Amino acid sequence: MTRKPIAKNADARTAWWEGLPAGIREQVDGYVLQDSLLAAVRVLVDVGFVRDGVGVGTAQLIVGDRYAHYGDRVAREPDSPLDPESLALRADGVVGRVVAIEAIWDGDTVHDWFVVLLAVAEDPDAEHVLATIPWGAAERHLGEGADRGARHPSAVVAERAGEALAARLRVPFHFASPDTPDDEAPRWRA
Fold first, then answer.
1. What is the DSSP string of 26-40?
2. What is the DSSP string of 105-127?
């Protein structure tokens, strides 16, 4: 008997999901509603790998389907404020004189690539996180259908917010790799 590949077929993923016991579905949905992507994926791999060949990639697609099902009901971490007043107030709280605003790439298994907006202080020599801008937060900030070209939305938002804040504080803005995610791009130096 030939099975449809679960990963490439939304109907097959739905059928596989619906064939799971209610307790497993409730556990996965509980993790999804808490925005615990990795925990939900782990449960599906643990119960589906040996029997059905459900690996991490397929489990991520199934969990993604569950995120889409619940939409706004998922309790997500609040977005960092990106309005000029909030960013300026956060920069005002930095110990030492702010000498630059910098945007850098970072990434993890939950958000993929995202941009961190930093205030760079001179004395003491330190950097302070002003905002973290993952893809979803950037899309919400830009609004539906916003023209960002082929660029990552996090880069577009970070560049706009960073340039505005730097101009307001009369300091330089630095973003070494605005067009391509690169967590090893050169950093700002005075």
1. HHHHHHHHTT-HHHH
2. EEEETTTEEEEEEEEEETTTTEE
Helices H / strands E in the chain, number of each: 7, 4
Q: What is the phi/psi pair of residue 134, to 5°?
A: -80, 170
Residue 127 CA to chain centroid, in angstroms? 21
CB 7 within 8 A of CB 57: yes
Higher pLDDT, 74 or 110: 74
| Beta carbons of 74 and 32 less than 8 angstroms apart | yes
The DSSP H or E segment spanning 106 is strand 98-108
CA dist., res. 62 & res. 4, Å (int)? 15
Q: Above 60 in pLDDT, residue 3?
A: no
How confident is the model at residue 123, as a pLDDT? Answer: 80
| pTM exceeds 0.70, yes or no | no
